[in-house]
Amino acid sequence: RIVNKTTTWCVPCGSYTFYAGTYVTNAFLPGKSRLALSIQRNQLDKSDDIILADTTALTKQNIYTKTISVPCAEQGVSLTNSQFENNRAELNGGAVATPDHYKNTFFQFNNVTFHNNYAGSKGGAIHLSGFQTAAHFSDSTFSSNTAEKSAGGAISVESFAGLQMFRIHAANNAAIGGGDGGFLFARFANPILLSDVKIEKSATNSEGGGGGLAVYSTKIGLERVTLNECEAGQRGGGGMLLDEGSEAHLLDCKMSNNVVSVVGSGGGHIRVAASTMILHNKDVGLIWPKSVPVF
Fold this sequence. Notes:
Strands 5, 8, 11, 14, 17, 20, 23, 24 and 27 form a nine-stranded parallel beta sheet that branches. A seven-stranded parallel beta sheet has the order 7-10-13-16-19-22-26, with no helix packed on it. Strands 6-9-12-15-18 form a five-stranded parallel beta sheet, with no helix packed on it. It contains no helices and 27 strands. The mean pLDDT is 93. The radius of gyration is 22 Å and the shape is elongated. 0% of the residues lie in helices and 47% in strands.
């Protein structure tokens, strides 16, 4: 029983039905009683706590229920002013990785540098996989990261994991073993948002596609994104490759000097295959839908 107390609970992020009450017929809380349920913000967010429930209903009824959502972003690992350099992984994620199909993991990176990291398979610097797994990057740099045998020279995101990036600079990242996405590879991911991101001089080898970005079966939003001097191989899309039912929304983006190195392959800047690309007017605001409970 909890009466006139402030208590702290630890639960995984996700959606829940919250129950409270006296559970006694015709027994209510005193007239000025109030029940409040809140969650603290993560260490990088100075905003007020998130209010999940705030009610006086138990002064008139003996049971109260409400559907609540505990955001993953408020429970994850937060790193700021950090550097990951010269790290190696035999499989995925040279610097940071989750196991495949993992759940309930969130990373928040602010002012973090990822340089010269290597993965034997996917995600030279970062690999994310699984439901309610995601990462948020801001004011960070990715340079000279490599995925050797598979995809995502710097980052790979798959199996319903999520990603958001703000004010990022990425250069000289590469997928060198026939995989796609010199900088970023995504397949069956939750909606991805890139805002104020500059990607340059990223590449695949002669077999790969999407010198900068390779997006499969995923929705992605690009807002003020620059793709410059990226290079892809046989599967095309020097700057970006969209395939397998992907949907891309582009707003105020710039592409220059992207190339496909293999004769007969398509899309010097962008290749769209069995997917949708929507170009928005520069003056239109991009409102990206929330991905509850992750973002």
